[in-house]
Amino acid sequence: MEQPITEYSMRHYCGGTYRGAIDQLDYVVEMGFNAIWISPIPSNTDIETIYGVGWHGYWQDNIYQLNKYFGQEQDLINFIDEAHKRDIWIMLDVVANHVGPNVTNNYYVPFNESEYFHQPLCLIKDYSNQTEVEFCSLGSERSVLPDLNTEHDFVVSSFLSWINETIMKYKFDAIRIDTFRHVRKSFWKDYNRYSGVYSLGEVATSDTSYVGSYQNVADGILHYPLYFLLNQVFQDNDQSRRSMFVIENQVQENEKYFNDTTLCGIFLDNHDQDRFLNHTQNSVRIQNALVYLMFSDGIPIVYMGTEQNFTGNPNEKYGATDPWNREPLWKSGYNRSMWIYTYLAKLNQIRSLLKEQYNEEFFISHQQTMLIDNDTYVYKKGSLVIVVSNQSFNRTKKLSFDSTVVSNRWKDLLDNKIYEIDNNNELEIDSWQPKLLLPVSSSAPILSSCLAVLSFFIIIFFQYE
């Protein structure tokens, strides 16, 4: 008889492996995703802490050994080879800021001397102090994550060699960099150059100017400022739900502070944040949020379990977040008939159509606002007009087109309904269902290899079997 999931079990390995992931690659393919973000691969500490063990991959103790719980070296190679056969990119999660909790520095490989860590040991108390952010340790008094001295020549050379050799050996296509703001920017310039692949940095704060500045040392940044807003805009709570104006304002901020948001990762949740679906169970609101995620500026990233309506643990006070947001995916039975799974498949199919029909135009173009009010946001991106709302409305809204509009007839790619522009160059919107409007007189398909057409699906291996 299967045991119920407890907090203890959620903080330990659940049995997921590279071999198991191979068996479910077609589950990802059939949902339409063409890239997978996976857990860090090095060995992690098995030392028991108040937060369990390093089951998640972020508590490395030996960067030269693979995590034995995920499988052997050949298993990892086979997994990546099988993904590539299906035209799926693999993005590796990497950590260079810290190691796992332990009582002595000589425990770690190759960083087995105190000089390889920032001294004296301190915990980050003030996240507005950049020196403290870069030189002090994450964690708590009861579980410190020793902060690596990434100014030390040996630490630097070890990581540069490791990332280069790891990418070459296993043929990874991209890297997601953990705790990006906790290491000096100049380190990342060399690190990303040695990796030779697309890099995506994690800067987990809402300050757009601060987050955007890190795109000078990575190809893209996880768009946390947008993440926080999307969760406020697309939630069921009427009192705390914010208007669509905050998204439009964020779009303007993006243009000022990011080099190119189309190369950044956008998301509704992940393994570090609340399950998005814990805050909304309204199917139309969920559809609107997913449409914005998949058809706005940036590379969409969907966290495993979203497609199965995972909400965390509703019986726990903080059940939307870690560790309850990391439940095993196999509990769902990989149900391909779940409505969110099929809806994501449809959205990815439309993205593929846009890739074929417009080459890279849609993906590299930046969205332009056409209509904005409290509950509806309409914008143009390439040749596509996207309509999203966060609540129902009881009046018809009119969308104005300029006199150079390419067609008087527009097709909603979501339901195939045809909309016609009237004599005043206006199109009526009468419901809060999302819309993806394409001119009926669209051009013939052409092919593309544009980076921005990627859509990522996050797999954490302890959950995936």
UniProtKB/TrEMBL annotation:
Record SMART domains: Aamy (SM00642)
An annotated GO BP: carbohydrate metabolic process
Transmembrane helix listed as a keyword: yes
Cystine pairings recorded for this chain: C122-C136
Transmembrane regions listed in the UniProt entry: 444-464
E.C. numbers: 3.2.1.1
Sorted UniProt keywords: Calcium, Carbohydrate metabolism, Disulfide bond, Glycosidase, Hydrolase, Membrane, Metal-binding, Signal, Transmembrane, Transmembrane helix
Catalytic activity: Endohydrolysis of (1->4)-alpha-D-glucosidic linkages in polysaccharides containing three or more (1->4)-alpha-linked D-glucose units
Database matches in InterPro entries: A-amylase-like, GH, GH13_cat_dom
GO MF annotation list: alpha-amylase activity; calcium ion binding
Active-site residues, Swiss-Prot/TrEMBL: D178 (nucleophile), E202 (proton donor)
Domain of life of the organism encoding this protein: Eukaryota
Residues annotated as binding Ca(2+) 1: N97, E134, D147, H182
Residues annotated as domain Glycosyl hydrolase family 13 catalytic: 3-351
Cofactor(s) the protein needs: Ca(2+)
Positions with a binding annotation for substrate: W59, H98, R176, D272, R326
Ligand binding (Ca(2+) 2): D178, E202
EC category: hydrolase
Site residues by UniProt (Transition state stabilizer): D272
Similarity comment: family membership: Belongs to the glycosyl hydrolase 13 family.
Protein name as catalogued: alpha-amylase
